[in-house]
Amino acid sequence: MRKPAAPPVLAAAALVVTLLPAGAAAAPPEAPAAPPGGGPDWGACPSGVAAPGLECATLDVPLDYRDPDGRTIEIAISRLASTDPGRRRGVLLTNSGGPGGQGLGFPAALRDLGIPERVLETYDVIGVDPRGVGHSTPVTCDLTRAEQPSNIPRFARNDADVAAEAKRVAAVAAKCGSSRTAPLLPHITTANTARDLDRVRAALGEPKASYLGISYGTYLGAVYATMFPHRTDRFLLDSAAGPGGWDVSFSRMFGRGFADRFPDFAEFAAAHHEKYRRASCT
Known about the structure:
Elements: H1 8-13, E1 54-62, E2 72-80, E3 90-95, H2 106-113, H3 117-122, E4 123-129, H4 159-177, H5 190-203, E5 209-214, H6 216-227, E6 232-238, H7 248-271, H8 273-276
Parallel strand pairs: 3-4, 3-5, 5-6
Antiparallel strand pairs: 1-2, 2-4
């Protein structure tokens, strides 16, 4: 019996360990000396993130990279260590998207979803809660769940829905602007998040990093590779955002994509109603 096909992103992740740039050697890059202090102090992961084999740590990074000796914030990271140190190539940084998605538990989730064993053998898979998110120094804006239910806008049925959503997000912006974490907001940028990733790479003692990014994570990966081209190894960008990231043009195309593809999803859900019990079509 044939084994079921892996989900596309997991099957594609196998490319991380099989594709090399033209002319690149198959041998892993020579590891540099351990960073000052011996690297992250790995330990148990926070409640809700803990999983077998997953270790967690925090790193201090500049809040403002223009003032590297000024205020610092914490970045929470996790590690699923290579299962075969003899075949280990390096580290695989990951980002599951968002923007603003927590990533500390992502390495364990990838393993549990069936990422190819060769990836787990070849890399320490690294998760990161980006700056301002989750177990990193968070931007909270003191919002309730009802005030920020999702980063995916609700479907607008009419002009009244559009006006109501505009009013809601204006209230969210006002609350963020007056919250105790408001001073962090100017520094929560994709470029700074990419700089944080490079600090993670350096703290792990690696000359280069590989990367797996999904959705918004594709834009973050592209920005990292643009800013630090000499520190990139193998990159896999799945479900790519536009070249401008999560901007107005992308958001409009995002809505169009939902409109174009939702009928297919509805048809699939209806055809598998006994399993998913989500929809019916008449």
